Amino acid sequence: MDQQKSNCEENDSGRAADGTPPELAAPPKGEAKPPETPMETSSAPVRVCALCNCGERSLHGQRELHQFLPSPSWAPPENCTSDSAPPGGTSDDLSSIGFPDLTPPAYLYDNTGHCWVHHWCAVWSEGVRITDAQELEGMDKAVISGIHQRCEYCKRLGATIRCRAEGCSKFYHFPCSAASGSFQSLKQLALLCPEHIDKAVEIAGEVALCTVCD
């Protein structure tokens, strides 16, 4: 069982040529040390996932953030970049997962047109596929779709993981899928909402059966 699964299967500082760090030159004897230069503080915006709206160090098991660029055949909507941080974000409270109503695409892309998404949020998203080169395709479209799709569990936007049952239109964020009690098959990357959890064996086979209560 991988991270956060319920009801489921499973820059370099300068160095010498020999690799030793350079020594700071000692001031001449009797001469005062030069004043220390205060460390510069970064003014870069905090990176958050364009789907779950959590930061890099989220506690919900989404793993690391990855940067995604638009597909060659598709471009983000006009005026979709912004230096502003997404509303909310960086909170690990489940009530803060996702985005409130009317979140513009501008919040989801940095000023280069790239977006950031957690590993598991991306891999589980509907419409995203893993290529032969082990790269993810379709992430840009999934992000745009997500801002129009409400999570069945938290009722906020950014949900891209759809229940695999035929005819079911329920979507979830990755953290919410586990919290909701949905079935998750890591092998199939398939989710079943609590209403359709009885179909788990059809999707995942006998590995879907609980070894304790079955």
From TrEMBL:
Subcellular location per the Swiss-Prot or TrEMBL entry: Nucleus
Pfam family membership, one: zf-HC5HC2H
Write out the GO biological process terms.
positive regulation of transcription by RNA polymerase II
Check the record and name the Gene3D superfamilies matching this protein: Zinc/RING finger domain, C3HC4 (zinc finger)
GO MF entries: histone H3K4 methyltransferase activity; transcription coactivator activity; zinc ion binding
InterPro entries, per the entry: EPHD, Znf_PHD, Znf_RING/FYVE/PHD
Q: Which keywords appear in this protein's UniProt record, sorted alphabetically?
A: Metal-binding, Nucleus, Repeat, Transcription, Transcription regulation, Zinc, Zinc-finger
Q: Which PROSITE patterns match?
A: EPHD
What ranges does the record give for the region Disordered, renumbered to this chain?
Answer: 1-42, 68-96
Primary localization: nucleus
Report one GO cellular component: MLL3/4 complex
Domain PHD-type: start-end pairs: 93-197
Q: Does the keyword Zinc apply?
A: yes
Protein name as annotated: PHD-type domain-containing protein
Q: Which organism is it from?
A: Aldrovandia affinis
